[in-house]
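Try this one yourself first.
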């Protein structure tokens, strides 16, 4: 039987950060992962360049029963603190858009920085190793591992993330382990995921697959469907939108998917900076012989213009349509309300919404209030960020916070 001060289950962003910090405090640390390599989500993120944080990170960029829970950790180890580490490691980076920071070269540089720092701090990394059983024993924990060994630890850190991207080995292990220790787990669901349409609507929109626009997508939580962490009211995101063979994707859709629920609609403005009615009216006055779909095709992509006109039953030349029809086209472009039937699920979801309830944890230390020595960090916690580097920053911040005390 091996005895360590800290056993961390999960060698992702949060787990490795925690291992570094605990090791630097002189704690003996063992960190496990059932994968064959550490930081697999880091490796694939940002198209292989890792959107490692966001310059604008704050509590307002997170969802959960208590989004303010993240405030302490985010303030004590901020995006600027992580950027300093990236700079010290000599990793070149750039801001892409909306405060999103990416490596110039490769996400593997971030993984290498973390594994180098873990090694320097004395943390021992064990890959291809899973926990078969874990329980409270005395004033610590005992874990039976897949290699047949047993580890005893004074502190146990759950850092295995959520259920998103199961092909990479993601499971709900942290939730099950937390329940085993008596912690409450909120409802979990895929977040930052593409939305899907029913067959009839999908058939109409199939020709649009691959069409992209800059859009404003909004969603309103009805008053009777408001809940903790999901208050009634409107949320909107102004980012790219992509029509797919299954429905809608792109940053604006991924963002709104975290707020949307089955049975609810989303409203899309596909030319948000254009008064479509005024533009078509001006085109009509200038050249009434122009076909309606051609004029609309100067405002939105041609295939989208043709689809909108077909869906609205508008044909012919501008001179042949009245003002009411032009206003209808305006609404079809900039107030298109559609009701998705679902999302693409955990298969493509970037994160899991929900998790181990924050009222079970101390926001300063990430420690379980009812189980001394137990900590929960990263995506396993009911703290879910927007798209754009926010979830990685939560991983760094929560891992750092736990690493100061575990």
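Now uncover the answer:
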């Amino acid at each position: 039987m091996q005895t360590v001060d800290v056993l961390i289950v999960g060698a992702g962003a949060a787990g490795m950060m925690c291992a570094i910090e605990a090791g630097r405090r002189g704690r003996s640390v063992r960190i496990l992962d059932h994968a064959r390599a550490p930081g697999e989500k880091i490796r694939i993120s940002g198209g292989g360049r890792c959107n490692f944080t966001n310059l604008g990170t704050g509590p307002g960029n997170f969802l959960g029963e208590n989004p303010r829970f993240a405030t302490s950790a985010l303030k004590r180890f901020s995006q600027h603190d992580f950027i300093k580490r990236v700079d010290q490691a000599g990793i070149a980076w750039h801001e892409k858009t909306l405060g999103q920071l990416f490596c110039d070269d490769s996400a593997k540089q971030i993984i290498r920085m973390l594994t180098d720092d873990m090694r320097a701090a004395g943390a021992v990394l064990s890959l291809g190793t899973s926990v078969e059983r874990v329980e409270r024993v005395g004033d610590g924990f005992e874990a039976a591992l897949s290699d047949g060994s047993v580890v005893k630890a004074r502190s146990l850190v759950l850092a295995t993330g959520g259920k998103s991207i199961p092909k990479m080995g993601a499971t709900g292990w942290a939730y099950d382990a937390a329940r085993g220790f008596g912690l409450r787990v909120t409802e979990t669901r895929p977040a930052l995921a593409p939305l899907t349409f029913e067959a009839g609507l999908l058939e109409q929109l199939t020709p649009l697959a691959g069409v992209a626009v800059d859009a404003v997508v909004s969603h309103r939580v009805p008053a009777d469907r408001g809940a903790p962490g999901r208050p009634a009211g409107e949320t909107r995101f102004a980012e790219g939108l992509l029509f797919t063979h299954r429905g809608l994707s792109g940053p604006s859709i991924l963002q709104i998917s975290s707020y949307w629920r089955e049975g609810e609609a989303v409203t899309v403005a596909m030319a948000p900076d254009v008064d479509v009615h005024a533009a078509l009216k001006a085109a009509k006055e200038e050249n009434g012989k122009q076909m309606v779909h051609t004029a609309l095709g100067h405002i939105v992509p041609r295939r989208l213009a043709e689809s909108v006109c077909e869906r609205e039953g508008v044909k012919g030349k501008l001179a042949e349509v009245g003002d009411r029809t032009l206003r209808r086209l305006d609404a079809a472009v900039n107030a298109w309300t559609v009701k998705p039937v679902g999302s693409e699920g955990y298969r493509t979801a970037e994160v899991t919404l929900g998790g181990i309830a924050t009222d079970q944890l101390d926001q300063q230390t990430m420690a379980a209030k009812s189980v001394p020595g137990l900590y929960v960090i990263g995506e396993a916690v009911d703290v879910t960020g927007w798209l754009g580097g926010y979830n990685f920053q939560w991983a760094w911040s929560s891992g750092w916070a736990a690493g100061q005390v575990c």
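Discussion: The first helix runs from residue 13 to 24. The longest strand covers residues 233-243.
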